[in-house]
Amino acid sequence: MTLLEDDSLAVENQFRLFGDKSSFALELCLASEQPDRSVPEDSVGSWGGWRLWVGDVNFCRLQLDTADGPVEVQEVRWFLAPLIRWLVGSWTPLFHETHLPPETGWGDRRPRWARLAYLAMMELSGDSERFRKWQDWASRHALRSAAEGGLVPDIFFQRVGDELELSWGDRLQPGGESATFLLEDGRARVPVDDVGEALSAAIDWFLEQPSVARAPWSDEVRETWRCIADGQSGLEPLHWYLDSRREAGPLSNKLFAGLDALGKARPVIDGAWLGILAPEIAMFGDLTPQISQEAAVTLLTEFYNAKTQDREPENLSELVYDDPAWTSTSPFEAGYALALDVLDEADPDPDAPRTKLEELLHGLSICVRNVELGEQGPRGVALAGAGLRPTILVNLDHPMNRGLGRRFTEAHELCHILFDRQRARPLAHSSTPWAAPSVEQRANAFAAMLLMPTTRAKRPTATTLASLSRGVSILADKLGVSRIALRRHLANLGEINDYERDHMLGARDGWAGEERSGARWGLG
């Protein structure tokens, strides 16, 4: 049988389903006959079709423009070898590499998903040298890297915690002007184990099919896959997670040295992928490679010291629930709403002129500890969940924790403790520019609203820009926040207009140093 543009697959060649369509699944079908066309040597015996499912949505549904009019097709019809070869060749980074290529200038406005970041950099950089590192990254994470002449949906994969985040859209494929994938822009997260189990089963089935097994090109793919499936990659998955490379890099080495110094066992990876992360590994994944070895040991020491057999305080547990930041249309709006909910439930003195954050944290039995993690260390760290005493670590060396910035850090970490325990697992989260954008953006908004709720942060009465600026400065002191944080927050709330905000943000005063450093974590 030949797969023509307006054909369906024959009944005897039914699709084989691997995984669960409601979570993640891949369907494969090998056709009984090759198409009447030239067949590349590295694809012989693999003509067929495939469908990719996430949340009961078929990502391979597309419309083809034919001489007889548009035809809707439910699968990608092409050689299967390029898809399987790409999955096997990219397997370890695809499942474990969490960091995008380094880029400065985004700050708190970072694109929240890998596909958006890639397209943004493509628009900014074009074909320049600057973009090549992104092209290299995309070769491991963009499904269209598996096209090799076929039509493939525009999907990106990125590891985030214990999940794989998929982001997609309907971008036109070069050479595919007559085809449109019927898929609106979106994103989803799926447990790593769900994806790994589905894809590994699909690869096993494909490589065992007679037409594939007797093709010479499949020998190398089969051998590579056997090594991966047998767990012969060693700690390579961990190196990709921490250092974005095959061999151990700065963070892997500092993690290993820290574990050795504390007499703790090094991680062991048993299988083709690293599914559920140990909390201390997840904590290291958000650190900069420039963190000092001393700070790494301190961080691990604090983590192990926070281990406990005690149950979490009931009044804290009542506030905790899993509310993934990535599902929100706006992390800032979500953060604002969550902060107001917490104040409604736990504000120790609603009539006070400023939020009594220290009392609030004490009332929830959250331990706040001062630590020295260096200027390259995280601004703050949140520890909580089963087996961990709820703790906020404040890095005294971080420039943003000097003066009033400390209150913002503590409020930010409280958001992580309450709402970022992925699938109710223990939380060990480092707040840095390398952490997941949606998670950090929501925590920033939460901190702003917790410290500057609408009941306390009102526009000062003023008749001139100068008097408004003075009034905002007085109000900032009253609330215990920086001037820049209050100015941006009032603008977000609509209490001041953009012209007034820009005028005040451009003003030079005795707080200029704080304001310049604070802009990195601002809400603008």
Automatic annotation (TrEMBL):
Which superkingdom is the protein from? Bacteria
Annotated IrrE N-terminal-like domain ranges read 389-488
Q: InterPro entries, from UniProt?
A: IrrE_HExxH, Rad_response_metalloprotease
Tell me what this protein is called.
IrrE N-terminal-like domain-containing protein
What organism does the record attribute this protein to? Answer: Sphingomonas jinjuensis
